[in-house]
Write a structure and sequence with these properties.
The complex is a heterotrimer. Chain A is 41% helix and 21% strand. By secondary structure, chain A is an alpha/beta fold. Chain A has a single domain, classed as Pyruvate-ferredoxin Oxidoreductase, domain 3, CATH 3.40.920.10. Chain A has a 6-stranded mixed β-sheet, with helices on both faces. A 7-stranded mixed β-sheet of chain B has the order 3-2-4-5-7-6-13. The longest helix of chain B has 18 residues. The chains are: A alpha/beta, B alpha/beta, C alpha/beta. Chains in contact: A-B, B-C.
Chain lengths: 180, 385, 281
């Protein structure tokens, strides 16, 4: 079973970190994972992209050509990185930043990711962790135990509680949307 | 005991170097290799080694050669622009037989090019970059675990054969993060060491082949064996002589010491090639596309396989000729305008057609794109027979 | 103190003589002064490494029985630096010419000085590229003739010691091939100095510099050194007019407030290893 993820937004939103955490959570679950990213000026203020492939089989080609799950946290990223999605793709958008997504036939879930980060943790900085919680709640690609451990292994000391809150908030907004 | 980590290829190179006993690094930051310098800066002093950020690329390899003369296993890393600057010193390492490892994480294009995009445009430069006839070893990893293993092997080969070994990487493998299992401690791993003289100092000839291996013993500076290293063509005493016979002898030994040991040096990986009608030849990051494309071709009934040169130079003549004799077509896939394909063509001498899928637009080929080329090659040989 | 014959017997490699330097060349004087300094400092041959670049001066490394390397044009300092890093216990003495050190290797000079790495750099300044047949170097004075300056040089020259000092060199000294006792003395002090030391030796190239500029026989060129080199103490008392065309010799500057680079690096190792212990604790 192979799942392709693409996290996209603006440099500084922590999406590459989110990609690394997701891949590390997959390893903790005993799965295989490959993570790659776009580098260069794009990673500094422009649009930014991290990709993760999770599988129980060896992963060779490491880029995502067809995302099963696309997380979009800016309008520019939505315009730039959603072109290869189709009806089988799930597109998760941050309601604060994304209005329109070109891939109209894909399933789209609009979530208040950055808004929730601000509400739950006091800072929009935690949006990437809120998003991770939502992605995992919606796709079940890794266990929540592994995700939490991977998050806590990566984040700076002293921010553990805020990050746990962010994860929980992410699960919550995903559940709410699923209930709709 | 071991630990499972998610590492970038560049980070795995650092760990491989530490595990192999590299204790000196001199280099200059350059994308997309910089994580290697940063990793060495952190890791080397932890194990008692030394890291230097040098004033330029020339000093990077210069300090590496100096440290190696002192007996340290030493390494540098760079990308195309820096690799070009290092060429003169790589030649001296070939000629004076100074073990060292140079990592080249390739970027796109000549000059500044595209620093953060994948390419394999330096593959011929690794072989022919420095002036004058010379022979050296180049290996190229395709995965993060292989970055660790091949860095160790590069150190081992450089020590064993007293020559520079180039670890040829690309942005795909250098920056990708992947699962790797590393031992908790590297203490149990073998740490290669260049052959030491077994003659007393007064009888030591720095460049004499004393055991038929063609590789002279190398004493560390300061070990009591005083010898002379020179960038001039020299005889077995280490001093320039200038006669045609002395020149030929030294040139012969410098290439025969590698050619005579090709069985030990040259490694390729065969993937589903046993009954293949189309054998894809791909190396480094481009090979990752090829595994998938071969599987997809098999799924639709095309007998495809992959021959992956792990050792890029010396060229795997024997292995590629053997593959050519068993298959109907070779398809070289590389991320440049077509470099290695020329060497493949030379080696197979028309036994089978050699097709090329060259990709040089700063993105790796997708498996679907390579599959299309495999289909075309398969179609052609059907038509021909 | 060994006699010259004893020095030659003891330090020169058998079969490497005769050397390739021209009659009247000062390079032999510098090399024998260096051997006297090494001998006077009681350095064991095994503990000395002599690393040179490319040029007439750089051939010196091959003649003497130490750990020696005749490297690439301009690159003697990086190679010396790497060796010193791997083997801080060795006395690494770098031999370079004016072109080797200030032109093609200029960047390495300023950074070796800045780091204060424990090397002794001896610059054989003959004001010309000798080995390639007399082209001008960054140390050729203005208004001189060279094969690549047939209408006289128009480029100001470096004062290589000012350059090194500005870059951070903690020991600078100058001597000439005429002032041999002073030369031996500053070489000894340079070797003893903990940190980067540079010793400029003014030497004559009668073949490729003297002849083009009609400076006369080798002895006359040495006389010029005698007349123009002024001891530091006297130099300090001279006014600008009296200094015109002359240059100071002796130890020109020495500082001991900066840590030698490999010693400073030992502190990096200590900090790195302490951080590992902290992590694993």
């Amino acid at each position: 079973m192979k799942q392709n993820f693409r996290f996209s937004g603006t440099g500084g939103q922590g999406l590459i970190t989110a990609g690394i955490i997701l891949a590390e959570a997959a390893l903790l679950d005993g799965l295989l994972a490959v993570q790659s990213q776009s580098y260069g000026p794009e990673a500094r203020g422009g649009s930014s992209k991290a990709e993760v492939i999770i599988s129980d089989q060896p992963i060779r080609f490491g880029r995502v050509t067809h995302p099963d799950t696309l997380l979009v946290m800016s309008q520019e990223a939505a315009d730039k990185f959603s072109g290869d999605c189709d009806a089988s793709s799930l597109i998760i958008t941050d309601s604060l930043f994304v209005k329109d997504v070109q891939a109209r036939d894909a399933r789209r879930i609009d979530l208040p990711i950055t808004h929730t980060a601000r509400e739950a943790c006091g800072k929009p900085l935690f949006a990437n962790i809120v998003a991770l919680g939502a992605v995992v709640a919606l796709t079940k690609c890794v266990t929540t135990e592994s995700l939490e451990r991977a998050v806590l292994d990566r984040v700076p000391k002293g921010t553990e509680d805020a990050n746990k809150k962010a994860l929980a908030a992410g699960y919550e907004i995903a559940k709410k949307s699923a209930g709709k | 005991m071991s630990r499972v980590l998610l590492l970038q290829g560049n980070q795995a190179v650092v760990e491989g170097a530490i595990a192999a006993g590299v204790r000196f690094y001199g280099g200059y930051p350059i994308t997309p290799s910089t994580e290697i310098a940063e990793g060495m800066a952190k890791r080397l002093p932890q194990v008692g080694g030394k890291f230097m950020q040098t004033e330029d690329e020339l000093a990077g390899i210069g300090t590496v050669l100096g440290a190696s003369l002192g007996g340290a296993k030493a390494m540098t890393a760079t990308s195309g622009p820096g690799f070009s600057l290092k060429q003169e010193m790589i030649g001296m390492a070939c000629s004076a037989e100074i073990p060292c490892v140079i990592v080249d994480v390739q970027r796109v294009g000549p000059a500044t090019g595209q620093p953060t995009s994948p390419s394999q445009g330096d593959v011929m430069q690794t072989r022919w970059g420095t002036h004058g006839d010379h022979w050296l070893i180049v290996v190229s990893p395709s995965s993060v675990p292989e970055c660790f293993e091949l860095t160790r092997r590069a150190v081992e080969l450089s020590e064993k054969y007293r020559c520079p070994v180039i670890l040829l990487m690309d942005e795909i493998v250098g920056h990708m993060r992947e699962r790797i299992e590393l031992p908790d401690s590297y203490e149990g791993l073998s740490v290669p060491r260049r052959k030491q003289p077994d003659t007393p100092p007064e009888k030591y000839l720095a460049y004499a082949d004393t055991d038929g291996s063609m590789v002279p013993a190398m004493a560390d500076f300061g070990s009591g064996y005083r010898w002379h290293m020179t960038g001039l063509v020299h005889d077995e005493t280490g001093f320039p002589k200038g006669t045609p016979a002395a020149t030929k002898n030294s040139q012969d030994r410098l290439h025969l010491k590698l050619r005579n040991h090709e069985d030990d040096i040259v490694q390729v990986e065969n993937y589903r090639t046993e009954d293949a009608d189309v054998v894809v030849i791909a190396y480094g990051g481009a090979a990752r596309t090829a595994y998938d494309a071969v599987d997809m071709a098999r799924d639709e009934g095309i007998r495809a396989g992959l021959l992956r040169p792990v050792t890029i130079w010396p060229f795997a003549d024997r292995q590629i000729q053997a593959a050519a004799k068993k298959t109907k077509c070779l398809l070289v896939h590389e991320l440049n305008c077509g470099q290695y394909v020329r060497e493949v063509g030379r080696a197979v001498r028309g036994i089978v057609p050699v097709d090329l899928y060259a990709k040089y637009d700063n993105e790796p080929a997708t498996p679907e794109q390579l599959l299309e080329k495999i289909r075309e090659s398969a179609e052609k040989i059907k038509g021909a027979k | 103190m060994k006699s010259m014959e004893e020095l030659v017997d003891f330090y020169f490699r058998p079969n490497r003589l005769p050397h390739l330097w021209c009659p009247g060349c000062g390079n032999g004087v510098i090399l024998s002064a260096l051997l006297k300094a090494i001998d006077a400092e009681n350095l064991a041959k095994d503990d000395v490494a002599i690393i040179s670049g490319i040029g007439c001066s750089s051939r010196a490394s091959g003649y003497v029985d130490f750990n020696t390397a005749n490297t690439l044009h301009g690159r003697a300092l990086p190679i010396s630096t790497g060796l010193k890093m791997a083997r801080p216990d060795l006395h690494v003495i770098t031999l370079s010419g004016d072109g080797d050190c200030s032109a093609i290797g200029g960047n390495h000079l300023i950074h070796a000085a800045r780091r204060n790495i424990g090397l002794t750099l001896v610059v054989f300044n003959n004001s010309i590229y000798g080995m390639t047949g007399g082209q001008y170097s960054p140390l050729t004075p203005m208004g001189k003739k060279a094969m690549t300056a047939p209408y006289l040089t128009i480029e100001p020259s470096f004062d290589i010691l000012d350059l090194a000092r500005a870059a951070g060199a903690t020991f600078t000294a100058r001597a000439t091939t005429y002032h041999v006792p002073i030369l031996v003395d500053v070489l000894r002090k340079g070797i003893r100095h903990e940190g980067f030391s540079i010793i400029e030796v003014v030497t004559g190239c009668p073949t490729n510099y003297g002849r083009q500029n009609q400076l006369g026989a080798p002895a006359k060129m040495m006389e010029w050194q005698k007349d123009h080199g002024v001891m530091k103490a006297a130099w300090d008392k001279m006014d600008e007019a009296a200094r015109e065309g002359k240059f100071p010799i002796g130890v020109l500057s020495e500082r001991t407030d900066l840590k030698e680079y490999t010693k400073a690096y030992d502190e990096v190792i200590a900090r790195a290893q302490a951080s590992v212990k902290e992590e694993t604790a």
